Amino acid sequence: GIVLAHRPSLSLLFYGFNCRNEWMQNADLRAALSLAIDRAKLVAAVYGGQFEAATGILPPGLPGYRPNPDQTLYDPEKARQHLLKAVGKDPGQLGEIEIVSNSQSPFAQAELELVGKAWEQLGVKMRPKFITDWSQFKKYLNSSALQVYRMAWYADMPDPDDMLRPLFASSSPSNYMKYRDETT
Question: What phi and psi, each to the nearest 5 degrees, are found at residue 156?
Answer without folding.
Answer: -75, -30
